């Protein structure tokens, strides 16, 4: 079965530092997403990306966050100045029309 | 805005028995998709089953089946012949089919424990 790959699996960063979370979506998919999950709780939508631009973003996705497809295949989430409350599991997903495939996540710990 | 509610934070089932996980949702749309995702301890979410709202027939995938009640906005998951490998968090999710939004909206999840 096709897979979405995320790197790194775990990142520890100091408060105020920039982090980039990387994702390789499934190659023929058109829709991409970032979600986060704090302490194994609710899965929260951050942003969706379609046709090389953001199609929707949540209130969480403020100016500290940005997404890119730098080379047409990878899909990155950048947090410019991390806060303690950004500590969470971040999931990338890609989707064909009726099914989203999720990566294994990046655990971000902000200290 | 659409919402998804899972009222059971945790459920337990004896191995080989049947368990039903509840999910309700709120939407004003008539066309949408509903999903159950499983998140085992490895943490990657895996699709269990999908239901298109326009289909009256309940979806079935091997030991997994749903009871889709569109008027009641209810979408429960039944797991038959439960196995130890079914232990996981289960998330119910909603996605619009018509509004131009592609995001999946998740409930808070139900942790399923399977007892040997």
Distance between the termini of chain A: 36 Å
The number of helical segments of chain A is 0
* Count of helical regions of chain B: 0
**Which stretches of chain A of 5+ consecutive residues score pLDDT under 50?**
none
Q: What overall form of chain B do the CA principal axes indicate? A: globular
From the alpha carbons, calculate the radius of gyration of chain B and give it in angstroms.
14 Å
Based on secondary structure, the structural category of chain B is mainly beta
**Which two chains have the most extensive interface, and how many residues on each?**
A-B, 25 and 23 residues
Provide a short characterization of the protein structure.
The model of chain A has no long low-confidence stretch (mean pLDDT 92). In chain A, strands 2, 4, 5, 6, 9, 10 and 11 form a seven-stranded mixed beta sheet that branches. In chain A, strands 1-3-8-7 form a four-stranded antiparallel beta sheet, with no helix packed on it. Chain A is mostly beta strands.
